[in-house]
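Okay, can you check this protein?
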Amino acid sequence: MTYYADQPIRRTAQLLSDLGAFLLTVFAIWLGVEVHAQVMKLQAPGTGLVDAGNGLTGTFNSAADHADDLPLIGSALAGALHSGSDAGAKLSEAGRWQIEAVSNLALWVTVLLIAIPVVFLLVTWLPLRLRFIRRATAGRRLQLLGEEGHDLLALRALVTQPLPRLAKAGEVTTGWRERDPDVITKLAGWELERLGLSS
């Protein structure tokens, strides 16, 4: 497999793009984790509501249990106090709902902060890198085949080179048809150069 070009400028650009992709991914993950931690701090009021509701429920239930022992008004007072304990349960439920909502928000914000840059890289950077690797590896294999590979590289050069370049080197097409080894080597070199490989 050929991962990088032989030409120094192109290889440097590829290395920098790979480093940029890596750093962007690391930054997105770091940012996602940091934002998750900060958003999760918004659970504090919900936790406070749960604690307050549980405390209120416990207090009202305890008072209702003691009031039940009072003569004459005990059962009526206990019933009223138990309804106060229902308010504490509702307060706790509201706190739990807030905790869950904040947790879901933190999760989805984190997923988006990580997914957007990663998807951007998967759509832009990765296809370019894979296309280069595939083409450069195929070019290297053809180069290593010797004369047969050079013939195919020369043919590919005739197809892919800009027309002005071919027009300036008019003897190239004639030389290729006549299987001139120097012309085939020259054309193969052009194709290898286009692929970022040294001839």
About this structure: The mean pLDDT is 84. The helical segments are 8-40, 44-67, 74-123, 125-144, 147-160, 163-168, 171-177, 181-194. Residues 8-123 form one domain. The CA atoms of residues 142 and 149 lie 4 Å apart.
